[in-house]
Amino acid sequence: MFYLFSTAFVFLSLFVVIQLNAPDPMIPFRLFKNRYLLIANICGLLMGGILIGLTAYLPLWVQGVLLLAATSSGLTLIPMSLGWPLGAYLSGQFIVRLGTKPISLAGVSLIALGTLALTFITSGTPNVLLIIIMFFVGLGFGLAMTVFTVIVQSSVTWDNRGTAASTNAFLRTLGQTLGITVLGAILNQHIGGRTNNGTHVEPDILAAGLQSVFMILFILALLCVITTSLLPQKQLEFGEKSSTKEAL
């Protein structure tokens, strides 16, 4: 694992050096001078890790710790899919009236509270409580993701919007890739060598490992709350006038 991360760091460093010297870079790093974009991209990276952690490991908790059927583990994620579009709708309704910071902060706070609640669940926690938690987490994702998308597109000139939006999407995907790697390593660290016949994991052992995973998700969400709180206290302009002077 150490060699993989070392290799990844070397190639990432080479990529940054090449992009900084390229006449037409894939990722214009000058965009990160924009405080709005910087915060939106950091939160996108963190939220990508949180999202993949929830979708990968909460069903594992339901099936491996609560010992419910695979169908039940999949149904646990449906409330998040219902809360997400509701949050996106509410975000669209109130973003002009309230501004970007209150809505995005409310969204990431819901995610943080949801992941915090997951750190307290036990093998006796009813599945219906997980469903409620995931609904509010989905609501938080809908609120925050919508605002960050608007921030990214409204903080640059028209000719940079495609680049800014694709960079934000790339960082969300990168967050998922890094997230599933790190969380998987943490879980394997807890259950490695503690399986029966090399295949079966006792529910209490799996629960301990997944609790560590949920704690990491809460830490990521808390970092997202702190980062979002640094958004400037002003209303973004929408339309062609939204060329951001502080960025470009």
Automatic annotation (TrEMBL):
Q: What keywords are assigned to this protein? A: Membrane, Transmembrane, Transmembrane helix, Transport
Q: Name one Pfam family in it.
A: MFS_1
- Which residue windows are transmembrane per the record? 36-58, 65-83, 103-121, 128-152, 205-231
Can you cite an annotated GO cellular component? plasma membrane
Please state every residue range assigned to the domain named Major facilitator superfamily (MFS) profile.
1-236
For molecular function, the Gene Ontology terms on record are: transmembrane transporter activity
User: Which SUPFAM superfamilies does the protein's record reference?
Assistant: MFS general substrate transporter
The answer to whether the entry has keyword Membrane is yes
> Quick one: signal sequence residues?
none
Q: Which Gene3D superfamilies match?
A: MFS general substrate transporter like domains
- InterPro entries found in the cross-reference section: MFS (IPR011701), MFS_dom (IPR020846), MFS_trans_sf (IPR036259)
What topology does the record note for this protein and the membrane? Multi-pass membrane protein
Compartmental location: Cell membrane
Q: What is this protein called?
A: Major Facilitator Superfamily protein
Q: Specify the species.
A: Salipaludibacillus aurantiacus
